[in-house]
Q: What sequence folds into this?
């Protein structure tokens, strides 16, 4: 794991109350996807205290953090109640109103974070790396 919860919260503009333990389940999928893109050697090097390429390590750290956001977003946009999962809900008209993203808004946000991940590590993506749904040469 190159990134940490603090880095994810900073890049995503998330509140400090969103704890590391809440983000923990999403680091595995994020790191596996990043390894598919850049290879195990680059990923392992980026995790070293003194990587051989600090710029690459910084780029991969950002990419992994964006991927954590990408994977976490659907779970962070849910409310559980006795009847099941509520994914889109507006509560009252008090001074504190909570609005949750509807499914298409949530997917739009996820795609932004996925593009940010690709853009962060674009020059380090290997020719054998695969990016489903996004071209590694598409510019944002």
A:
């Amino acid at each position: 794991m190159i990134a940490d919860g603090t880095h994810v919260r900073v890049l995503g503009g998330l509140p400090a109350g969103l704890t590391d333990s809440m983000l923990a389940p999403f680091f595995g999928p994020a790191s596996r996807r990043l390894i598919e893109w850049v290879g195990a050697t680059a990923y392992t090097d980026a995790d070293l205290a003194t990587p051989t390429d600090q710029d690459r390590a910084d780029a991969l750290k950002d990419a992994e953090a964006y991927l954590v956001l990408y994977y976490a977003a659907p779970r962070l946009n849910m409310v559980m109640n006795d009847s099941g999962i509520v994914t889109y809900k507006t509560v009252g008209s008090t001074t504190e109103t909570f609005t949750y993203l509807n499914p298409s808004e949530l997917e739009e946000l996820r795609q932004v974070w996925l593009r940010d991940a690709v853009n962060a590590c674009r020059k380090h993506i290997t020719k054998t790396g695969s990016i489903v749904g996004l071209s590694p040469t598409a510019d944002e």
Notes: The longest helix spans residues 54-76. The chain is about 50% helix and 5% strand.
